[in-house]
Design goal:
alpha/beta, Alkaline Phosphatase, subunit A, four-stranded antiparallel sheet, 25 strands, about 20% strand
Length: about 500
């Protein structure tokens, strides 16, 4: 099987044809695996038990990790949501695709995505949960955008997605269509440091049956000008469970044929709201937790339960062995270090290109092909999803547009010890270049103040070696600039 990529590596950009010699993970003719790509929203690297987290119960994810390859150095392509999502479906840095940061840009219609690729070889395609790669309506205001924002219209059904149950952006993580009608609680909440005595941008306690409520402003879209009635009882309860229910219905309908299900959960993005049962389970264990922490922990437990339900259904249907399931988060945790989400030992959080903003949980489960309970310290990234899946299925890239991801098939086969080329980052003025050991970082690309870290020895990024390793830094900055020139050319339309 041949794949054609434009490889961006160090100071050289070239076209290469790669002849694959490792075939054990690749699908045989007529044996295409199902693919499920799960992504949480703002879940921290340290929020899960399998990465050492003890503050939140994640038994189903921990069980998945015990049966998976744990990518301990897995990266989101960006420290905010929309750009990372673009990287998942295109294998490219988000600037190439027309998405620059959250709520800025849209997925260009000319992009070659995982949906088009797998649809072309007979896969059923479905997208469930958050979209956030363009607006979903030209007619009404929905969530952050929509309505008159026609320039950024880029809904799922324009990208060979046949089944859709998707929102434009964030929703409450419980009763996702509704919020308390009393908005006076915002100031009250600030004084109470997260007790959720009213409405807050952070969240609120689950609404009781007799509570006055108002429409949150986000809809679940199922097609052009088609959405689920926000008043429907089918949209009541835990949002992760609602998304998973539609996902399971899709799998039930298509389990006899190969399918792609992209499942992008809203939890634990703000506003965090959890069921009373889930918040009570943590309050009973620790009566010092405020509403912010209780609801954050509760909605992570709920998303964990939804993933457990998915894995149980795959086993029930007898298709677990032929299904590749990937799990990750779109970026690091929201807020300051006092917020509920935890990034582990790493520096930085959401919106930062330090490790805590982009190093996220990463699991790959495929019982028939991946040895359970294994781990890898090779640097991997969301841009690697597309080339890996295309490699497994046997789909060639038909043009020479640059990909920033690499196929992880050699990693799955046990023959990849280091990343074959560096990872480039750029967003909101920040820049980084990461070769698996060394990381160059700059808070502003017009600044000369680049920092340099040896991540093997110093994953916490506490020792800036820019002065003592100036030659190493000089080479990395030069390579980043050449890579960035390629990205800028893509953004200007060179790939189409």
């Amino acid at each position: 099987m041949k794949q054609r990529y434009r490889v961006v590596s160090g100071s050289l950009i070239f076209l290469a044809t790669i002849l694959a010699v490792l075939v054990s993970v690749r699908a045989k003719a007529g044996e295409k695996p199902n693919v499920i790509l799960i992504m949480c929203d703002d879940l921290g690297w340290g929020d899960v038990g399998f990465n050492g987290g003890t503050h939140i119960r994640t038994p189903h994810l921990d069980e998945m990790a015990a049966n998976s390859l744990n990518l301990t150095r897995f990266y989101a392509q960006a420290p905010v949501c929309s750009p990372t999502r673009a990287s998942v479906v295109t294998g490219r840095h988000h600037d190439r695709t027309g998405i620059y940061t959250a709520n800025n840009g849209h997925l260009r219609e000319g992009e070659f995505t995982i949906y088009e690729a797998l649809s072309s070889v007979g896969y059923a395609t479905g997208h469930f949960g958050k979209w956030h790669m363009g607006t979903l309506t030209r007619e009404i205001r929905d969530s952050n955008r929509g309505g008159k924002d026609v320039t950024n219209y880029s809904p799922p059904w324009q990208h060979e997605i046949k089944t859709t149950f998707s929102t434009e952006a964030k929703t409450p993580t419980y009763d996702p269509m509704w919020k308390p009608a009393d908005s006076k609680g915002k100031k009250q909440n600030k004084r109470s440091k997260g007790d959720f005595r009213g409405v807050s941008s952070r969240g609120w306690h689950a609404l009781a049956e007799d509570t006055d409520s108002t429409f949150y402003g986000t809809r679940y879209w199922t097609g052009e000008d088609a959405f689920v009635d926000p008043e429907s009882d089918d949209l009541r309860g835990d949002d992760s469970a609602l998304i998973m229910e539609r996902t399971l219905g899709f799998i039930d309908a298509h389990r006899g044929t190969p399918f792609l299900a992209v499942v992008w959960l809203h939890a634990p993005h703000l506003p965090v709201v959890a069921s009373k049962e889930d918040t009570d389970s943590y309050a009973d264990a620790d009566d010092t937790l405020d509403g912010y922490h209780l609801n954050y922990y509760g909605c992570v437990t709920a998303l964990d339960r939804a993933i457990g339900r998915l894995r149980a259904r795959l086993r029930e249907y007898g298709i677990a062995d032929k299904t590749l399931v990937a799990f990750t988060s779109d970026n690091g945790p929201e807020g300051s270090d006092e917020a509920p989400g935890r990034q582990g030992v790493f520096k930085g959080r959401k919106r930062s290109l330090y490790e805590g903003g982009v190093r996220v949980p990463g699991l790959l489960e495929w019982p028939a092909k991946i040895k359970p309970g294994t781990s890898s310290e090779v640097a991997t990234c969301t841009v690697d999803y597309l080339p890996t899946i295309l490699d497994i299925v046997g789909i060639e890239m038909l043009d020479d547009r640059p990909l920033d991801g690499v196929s992880l098939v050699p990693l799955l086969n046990g023959s990849m010890e280091t990343r074959p080329r560096p990872l480039g980052f750029h967003i909101r003025g920040q820049a980084a270049w990461h070769d698996g050991v060394w990381k160059a970082y700059c808070s502003g690309v017009n600044s000369r103040d680049w920092e340099l870290y040896n991540l093997k020895d110093d994953p916490e990024e506490t020792h800036d070696l820019a002065a003592s390793q100036s030659k190493q830094l000089e080479g990395m900055v030069a390579a980043w600039k050449q890579w960035k020139a390629s990205v800028d050319a893509s953004d200007k339309g060179a790939d189409y």
